[in-house]
């Protein structure tokens, strides 16, 4: 078993980060979490997460009111969804942050 974990600032921004964790066993990704986190008003918020919770790979978009929007990937392997998540977060984190902040403003 091999376990890898790291956190990287997105494009050098100290208030936007990408968290990566995966477990690799016998040539297969068995478990992973790929997550975009943003510091907003001095607090870290999880905004988008790809993971294998509930024994299947999926994406959760987290909202300020505590709800989640879930997207399933029933025909993909864990490794495929992990790579999809990495690429999505690296490419679209600004859009995810803007949406989250808009939702926060609506709640006030």
Quick synopsis:
This protein has 108 residues and is an alpha+beta fold. It has one domain. The protein has 1 helix and 6 strands; from the N terminus they run ββββββα.
Describe, in plain words, how this protein is organized in 3D.
With 108 residues, the protein is an alpha+beta fold. It has one domain. Helix content is 28%, strand content 50%. The chain contains one helix and six strands. A six-stranded antiparallel β-sheet has the order 1-2-3-4-5-6. Strand 5 and strand 6 form a beta hairpin. The longest helix is centred in the C-terminal third of the chain and has 30 residues. It starts with a strand and ends with a helix. The mean pLDDT is 95.
Question: What secondary-structure arrangement, pairings included, does this model have?
Answer:
Blueprint: E1 2-10, E2 13-25, E3 28-40, E4 43-51, E5 58-62, E6 68-72, H1 78-107
Antiparallel strand pairs: 1-2, 2-3, 3-4, 4-5, 5-6
- Report strand order across the widest sheet: 1-2-3-4-5-6
Q: What is the percent of helical residues?
A: 25-40%
> Could you tell me the strand content as a percent range?
over 45%
Radius of gyration: 14 Å
**Given the C-alpha coordinates, what overall shape results?**
globular
**Contiguous helical run count:** 1
Distance N to C terminus? 46 Å
Q: Which consecutive residue ranges, at least 5 long each, have pLDDT under 50?
A: none
**How many domains?**
1
Largest sheet: 6 strands, antiparallel
Order of helix and strand elements from N to C terminus: EEEEEEH
Mean pLDDT: 95
The strand count comes to: 6
């Amino acid at each position: 078993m091999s376990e890898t974990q790291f956190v990287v600032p997105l494009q050098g921004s100290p208030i936007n980060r990408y968290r990566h964790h995966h477990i690799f066993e016998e040539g297969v990704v068995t478990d992973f979490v790929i997550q975009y986190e943003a510091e907003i008003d001095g607090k870290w918020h999880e905004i988008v997460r790809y993971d294998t919770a509930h024994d299947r790979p999926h994406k959760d978009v987290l909202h300020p009111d505590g709800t989640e929007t879930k997207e399933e990937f029933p025909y993909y392997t864990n490794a495929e969804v992990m790579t999809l998540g990495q690429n999505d977060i690296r490419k679209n984190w600004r859009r995810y942050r803007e949406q989250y902040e808009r939702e926060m403003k609506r709640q006030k």
